[in-house]
Design brief:
single chain; 412 residues; globular
Length: 412
């Protein structure tokens, strides 16, 4: 009996996919350390791996999207899952840095399943129910990021390569689920040929020139994203250098970060918006983030990081609120291009961040671990977050009435 495509099918696929990716986060920097002779070269090579993964993902996402429009969502998802599983397995078995780089390039190219999963949801949900459905999909990605690093840290404490084998096994399970259970969502009569113009990953960046009046806020989003991705790229290396944390400690800390993010995004955001409004929430969140980044670089004990993470809960809401302001301020006819531009900017900052973060960390690893200069990557993050704060405050001062509501007399 042929199954009818439904949201729960893709939810489970997405959850398993993210758990598999998250499993290797706490151990990959340590694995790189096995092939390097010093901490600075470890930081540089880890940065190369992250850039390789992000660049391949950015370049290949349009291709996977076009392939899914032509051949259906299911085969492209299966291809990506199988490819990721193979890269995890080969990573566990390799003993060469250059092989790791090649594997990460392949893995990044095959891991752009988020867009295909979102397209799957769009195929099977009516317009009025699409946003809640996409929200549930985002929650699955968030839950996978919470569970994956924690499990990876615990397994990595037993054996460094065990999370990689576990991730490969998770992909195999996910692939079987997709092959045997996951139905196709795109009917044959709705499939489109592959247009060469759609394969250009830089096309959506041209939308920056069309964002009249909203551009400053877009750059605030970019600065905040760059700070966030720089933190993510250097967290495991930094805690290892400064506090001698291993995969278990890093897995637990990443679990706490993900848990706070899920709580804020999943429930507290609505309360904060109602009590503070979008603009005050953005300003408070960006200011809180700048202070938190500085504290990450200054704390002298590992347990203090947990206090900073929990005290910085406003920052987990500010980026979403800022994106909402951008969306409402943009021309209603430019919504698609506006959000595509934000997505492209996130991809670009995700590529720049590891270059910036690992370079800065590599410059200070020769200092004693209790030297405040070791926190240099996080001080750069604090500066970026402060820049985002100043840009947002200046924009709010120049536009006291929200652009998107100016003609209707609405208020922030």
């Amino acid at each position: 009996m042929k199954r009818q495509a439904a949201v729960p099918f893709i939810m489970l696929t997405s959850l398993l996919d993210m758990i598999g990716i998250g499993l290797i986060i706490p151990v990959l920097p340590v694995l790189v350390g096995e092939f390097t002779q010093s901490r600075d070269t470890q930081a540089y090579w880890y940065g190369v791996l992250i850039v390789a993964f992000g660049l391949a993902q950015f370049l290949c996402a349009p291709l996977l999207g076009a392939l899914s429009d032509r051949f259906g969502r299911r085969p492209v998802l299966l291809l990506g899952i199988a490819g990721l599983g193979i890269t995890f397995l080969v990573t566990a078995l390799t003993h060469s840095l250059w092989m790791l780089v090649g594997i990460r390039l392949l893995g990044g190219g095959l891991s752009a399943n988020v867009a295909v999963a979102q397209a799957y949801v769009a195929d099977i949900t009516p317009v009025e129910k699409r946003t809640p459905a996409l929200g549930k999909l985002g929650a699955m990605f968030g839950l996978g990021f919470v569970l994956g690093p924690m499990l990876g840290g615990l397994l990595g404490h037993i054996d460094l390569r065990l999370p990689l084998f576990a991730a490969a096994g998770m992909c195999a399970l996910n692939w079987l689920y997709g092959l045997l259970v996951l139905p196709e969502s795109l009917p044959i009569d709705r499939r489109n040929p592959i247009a060469p113009a759609r394969l250009n990953p830089f096309s959506s960046l041209s939308g920056l020139a069309r964002l009249k009046g909203v551009g400053p806020l877009v750059f605030a989003v970019a600065a905040a994203n760059l700070a966030q991705f720089t933190l993510q790229a250097t967290w495991v290396l930094y805690t290892g250098f400064r506090f001698n944390w291993g995969p278990r400690e890093n897995g637990i800390s990443l679990f706490v970060v993900g848990f706070v993010a899920v709580v804020v995004q999943g429930g507290l955001l609505r309360v904060l918006l109602k009590g503070m409004g979008e603009r005050r929430l953005v300003a408070a969140g960006l200011a809180s983030g700048a202070l938190a980044y500085a504290c990450y670089g200054l704390v002298t004990r590992g347990w203090m990081l947990y206090l900073v993470i929990m005290a910085n809960f406003l920052a987990f809401a500010s980026t979403t609120a800022l994106q909402g302001i951008v969306s409402k301020a943009a021309d209603p006819r430019e919504q698609g291009r506006t959000m595509a531009t934000l997505t492209s900017l996130a991809s670009i900052t995700g590529i720049i961040a590891p270059v910036l973060g690992t370079f800065l960390l590599g410059q200070v690893t020769h200092f004693p671990k209790d030297d405040w200069l070791v926190g240099a990557p996080f001080f750069a993050c604090a500066l970026l977050e402060a820049i985002a704060y100043l840009i947002a405050r200046r924009y709010f001062a120049r536009h006291p009435t929200p652009l998107g509501l100016a003609t209707t007399g609405g208020a922030a």
